[in-house]
UniProtKB/TrEMBL annotation:
Belongs to the UDP-glycosyltransferase family. The lineage of its organism: Eukaryota, Viridiplantae, Streptophyta, Embryophyta, Tracheophyta. One of its GO terms (molecular function) is quercetin 3-O-glucosyltransferase activity. Keywords: Glycosyltransferase, Transferase. Coiled coil: none annotated. This is Limonoid UDP-glucosyltransferase-like.
Length: 289
């Protein structure tokens, strides 16, 4: 966990204004009087501000939120954002509040946005259509949220997103901000999608559904060992399109934060790091105290 803070902090400070990471352990998290509330605000404004944006699904929200808590505990101000629909569920399930909350040596806060569709909108059932709608709304809403935070004394240092919403990188670029992407699968899966997307090696297809796949720095993969979404018989081709969509923008992020660790996939991480700046940040299954 300390590796996350040291490496990521050093990268951020080269892309943002100098800031001092202060200890907030003396600030109580409950029933703060006005004087301490002001102190909390002053301390939070001195921290590097990371703005995390998640695709609105539980399997995406949970890992990114765990990463956010780890980064907050190490002395960052973290804003976690996703759609208001997920925000309502999080308030009911976890009792979160939308106000600044001390967490370890930093702070965490939540800021949600509407996706522009009613809950009973039938197009929600079509992932391709929903991804287009989310991009259309997100590209308008997120810059406004970033600007508002700056006006309130919380300028954002970096945007972090997870797969399915690669347009966040475009937003960051347009705002002159660095960005990072959290990949929540292994480096082996990441490499498989990368080589499939770029066509560097043959994969099973409709004509040859049972060919084996040899990827650099990996043992031979039998046809039924490649990620299931890449197989021609997958019943979920829309998920393959959604995942591969992230690879269009992977030359833009400051780094790719990967849910793995160096001892698990040393050779493969080293190889893929020659193509992309990869930072292994796993395992993320434990929440920081």
């Amino acid at each position: 966990m300390l590796y996350i803070s040291a490496s990521f902090h050093s990268m951020l400070t080269t892309h943002s204004q100098p800031h001092q990471v202060l200890s907030c352990s003396s600030i109580s998290s409950v029933s703060l009087p006005v004087k301490k509330t002001r102190k909390r605000k002053m301390v939070s404004e001195s921290l590097g501000h990371l703005f995390l944006i998640s695709f609105p699904a539980q399997g995406h929200v949970n890992p990114l939120l765990r990463l956010g808590k780890i980064l907050a505990s190490k002395g960052f101000l973290v804003t976690f954002s996703t759609t208001e629909t997920i925000g309502e569920q999080m308030r009911k399930a976890s009792g979160i509040i939308d106000k600044l909350t001390p967490f370890g040596d930093g702070f965490i806060r939540f800021e949600f946005f509407e996706d522009g569709w009613e809950q009973d909108e039938p197009r929600r059932q079509d992932l391709d259509q929903y991804l287009l709608q989310l991009e259309l709304v997100g590209k308008q809403v997120i810059p406004h949220m970033i600007k508002k935070n700056a006006e309130q004394g919380r300028p954002v240092s970096c945007l972090i997103n997870n797969p399915f919403i690669p347009w966040v990188t475009d937003v960051a670029t347009s705002l002159g901000l660095p960005s990072a992407m959290l990949w929540v699968q292994s480096c082996a899966c990441f490499a498989s999608y990368y080589h499939y997307y770029h066509g560097t090696v043959p994969f099973p297809d409709e004509e040859h559904p049972e060919i084996d796949v040899q990827l650099p720095c990996m043992p031979l993969l039998k046809h039924d060992e490649v990620p299931s979404f890449l197989h021609p018989t997958t019943p979920y081709p829309f998920l393959r399109r959604a995942i591969l969509g992230q690879y269009k923008n992977l030359d833009k992020p400051l780094c790719i934060l990967m849910e793995t660790f160096d001892e698990l996939e040393p050779d493969l991480i080293k190889h893929m790091s020659e193509i992309f700046p990869i930072k292994a940040v796993g395992p993320l299954f434990r929440n920081p105290k």
